[in-house]
């Protein structure tokens, strides 16, 4: 039964082939005459034949020790196969080792499949996701290989997606970083501009307050001038009234002088008549004639003085009238000045009020600019935080790309280092 299902070969204790059954010859690709009489070393790698392990292996067999394990062996065409074999020393009745029998089975497919899966796990450990386990005719190993390939396919897709996401994050982070840098520069420029604007507004507000103060001073001076003009107007009115009273007195004096002139004229006539009567009286009227002459002379001088006084009074009246006219015109001008000063005072009040409103508005603008500057400063701080966060994100993205960069994926569906074909197994599927 063993001869029909297993590969069997017999050796002398020195390793010389005595006989090999058909299963063995088929597995190794030889004919019987090509192996009988040859040494076991023809089935082993030449480099292994030269080792102490190989020499000790046969020494132990000759000492009666048996071995069961998987062994790599060379076919005639130079290809390697794996066999699950038992080397058993056979003794005679006296206990002497007369031959060594090896019973083997070809496990190349199983071994190669396991090696392929092991290689896949090693590749996975190294981050190589391009390796794929090939097909296998052993169901359990085929299922294991398929499970490995499916898992690696899924992992490869995940890694590819992660790589794409990492590249996208890196690109977006770079773009956000550039935008943040530009926004930071613009925010700094805006902050500087706002600071300059605030300084200019503050200076303008200070000038406005000074203008308000000056306008108030001008208003006070205008009010004082208006008050003074009012006093001057009253004074002019008093002067006008005095001039009119003087004019009235001059008229009264003129009338009195006219009466005196009339009296002097009448006195002169009476003196003349008295002189005529005294002349008629002769010597008796001589003294009276002298008195009448003196009275006549006095009346003449009185009349002359009255005429002179009248002339002076008329001249004075003319001057007084001229003065009254001048005072009237002065009063009119002072009234105009008073009204003009009043209008100026009102305008100054309006200007002062407007400047006050402007100062208040400038203060509100300055406050708004100050708040805007604070907001800009906070925005600048947020931009810096965003830039730092973006930098951190970029670093994390780079770390992610570096981490997943150890994985190598393939869009070709992977590759396999073995094939479950008859030629690879020497045309023998189960025994060797």
UniProtKB/TrEMBL annotation:
Leader sequence residues: none
CDD domains xrefs: MCP_signal, PAS
Comp. bias intervals (Low complexity): 408-421
SMART domains given in the database record: MA, PAC
All residue ranges annotated as the HAMP domain in the record: 108-160
Annotated ranges, domain PAS: 1-47
Location of the PAC domain: 67-119
Swiss-Prot/TrEMBL GO biological process terms: chemotaxis; signal transduction
Superkingdom assignment: Bacteria
Major localization listed first in the record, in broad terms: membrane
Methyl-accepting transducer domain: residues covered: 165-394
GO molecular function per UniProt: transmembrane signaling receptor activity
InterPro entries (UniProt xref): Chemotax_Me-accpt_rcpt, HAMP_dom, MCP_chemotaxis, MCPsignal_dom, PAC, PAS, PAS-assoc_C, PAS-like_dom_sf
Disordered, as annotated region: 407-432
Gene Ontology CC terms: membrane
Subcellular compartments: Membrane
Keywords linked to the UniProt accession: Chemotaxis, Transducer
NCBIfam families for this protein: sensory_box
Family, as annotated: Belongs to the methyl-accepting chemotaxis (MCP) protein family.
Name of the molecule in the record: PAS domain S-box protein
């Amino acid at each position: 039964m063993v001869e029909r299902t297993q590969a069997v070969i017999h050796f002398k204790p020195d390793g010389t082939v005595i006989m090999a059954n058909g299963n063995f010859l088929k597995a190794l690709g030889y004919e019987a005459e090509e192996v009988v009489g040859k040494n076991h070393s023809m089935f082993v790698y030449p480099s292994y034949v030269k080792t102490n392990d190989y020499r000790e292996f046969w020494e132990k067999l000759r000492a009666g020790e048996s071995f069961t394990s998987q062994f790599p062996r060379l076919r005639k065409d130079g290809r390697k196969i794996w066999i699950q074999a038992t080397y058993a020393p056979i003794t005679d009745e006296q206990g002497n080792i007369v031959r060594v029998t090896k019973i083997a089975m070809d496990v190349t497919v199983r071994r190669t499949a396991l090696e392929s899966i092991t290689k896949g796990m090693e590749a996975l450990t190294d981050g190589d996701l391009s390796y794929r386990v090939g097909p296998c005719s052993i169901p359990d190993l085929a299922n294991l290989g398929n499970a490995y390939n499916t898992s690696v396919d899924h992992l490869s897709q995940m890694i590819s997606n992660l790589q794409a996401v990492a590249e996208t994050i890196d690109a977006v982070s770079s773009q956000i970083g550039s935008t943040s840098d530009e926004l930071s520069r613009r925010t700094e420029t805006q902050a500087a501009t706002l600071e300059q604007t605030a300084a200019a507004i503050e200076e303008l507000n200070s000038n406005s307050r000074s203008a308000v103060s000056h306008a108030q001073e001008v208003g006070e001076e205008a009010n004082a001038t208006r008050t003074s003009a009012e006093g001057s107007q009253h004074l002019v009115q008093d002067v006008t009234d005095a001039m009119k009273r003087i004019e009235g007195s001059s008229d009264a004096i003129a009338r009195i002088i006219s009466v005196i002139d009339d009296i002097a004229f009448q006195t002169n006539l009476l003196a003349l008549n008295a002189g005529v009567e005294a002349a008629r009286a002769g010597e008796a009227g001589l003294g009276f004639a002298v008195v009448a002459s003196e009275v006549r002379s006095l009346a003449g001088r009185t009349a002359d003085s009255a005429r002179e006084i009248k002339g002076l009074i008329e001249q004075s009246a003319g001057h007084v009238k001229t003065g009254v006219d001048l005072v009237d015109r002065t009063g009119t001008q002072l009234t105009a000045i008073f009204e003009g000063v009043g209008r100026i005072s009102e305008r100054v009040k309006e200007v002062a009020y407007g400047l006050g409103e402007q100062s208040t508005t400038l203060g509100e603008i300055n406050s708004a600019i100050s708040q805007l500057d604070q907001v800009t400063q906070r925005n600048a701080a947020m931009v810096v935080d965003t830039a730092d966060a973006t930098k951190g994100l970029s670093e994390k993205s780079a770390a992610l790309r570096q981490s997943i960069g150890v994985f190598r994926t393939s869009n070709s569906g992977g590759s396999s280092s073995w094939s479950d074909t008859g030629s690879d197994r020497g045309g023998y599927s189960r025994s060797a």
